[in-house]
């Protein structure tokens, strides 16, 4: 028998035999997957397959009824308010920006606890706080520029087109320099050009200076096929296939799962 995993054996996020029940309904059943550093892992599956439930387990919104999670080989019990501190960022379906804040303020609001402490000190005029505030604003502006939306820094989110707001939400997640980014349907509501640009952004995430692994839950087949190193396919809460996109595309079990279910209208293609 192999010895138990140590932190160095198992870098990144891992789910081990996770199950979730809602009353009598089994939403996830014996699901295991890994998101190693620097990799983009996609979770796909037909409607009701369990994708959102899996995302919610990793964010701490849903408690598994069985199995476990590890982060760098250590037991990991996700809590939504502790994710940033653990180096985990997320964007949710929709955008969820603060309507009373400008774009720039929305992005700085996503900074880590330590960076925000400096920002809060600025509010009370404490020593060194000007420098912290300037640094945080500069960082936020640089991120907005990287995402091609810095000209909107002073705008209120409600005045901006949906695809721009989605990028603001991404910038807000990135300013905390996550080592793992959880993306829930980032292509939802985007047109073909915006999805192509999103694909470039996601592909570039692991190459950022601080590097970043990505767990991507998504309906849009063209996006997942073009950005993911690895795909995990769920159907009725179980993993029916896992591997590189080329293999998943040709897997008859995956085609069958999709053919037997409604393929969403916004899907960019079928596997
Ligand atoms: N809070 C809940 N209470 C009861 N059942 C739930 C709850 N959340 C999800 N479910 C059920 O669990 C199963 C998995 O749902 P989930 O939303 O995770 O699937 P999905 O793959 O994200 O679907 P979609 O692609 O339609 O968003 C479905 O049968 C769903 O009805």
UniProtKB/TrEMBL annotation:
Molecular function in Gene Ontology: ATP binding; ATP hydrolysis activity
Pfam family for this entry, one: BCA_ABC_TP_C
Spans traversing the lipid bilayer: none
ABC transporter domain span: 13-261
Name under which the protein is recorded: Amino acid/amide ABC transporter ATP-binding protein 1, HAAT family
CDD domains assigned: ABC_Mj1267_LivG_branched
Source species: Micromonospora humi
One annotated Gene Ontology cellular component of this protein: plasma membrane
Keyword DNA-binding: no
Keyword rRNA-binding: no
Keyword annotations from UniProtKB, A to Z: ATP-binding, Nucleotide-binding, Transport
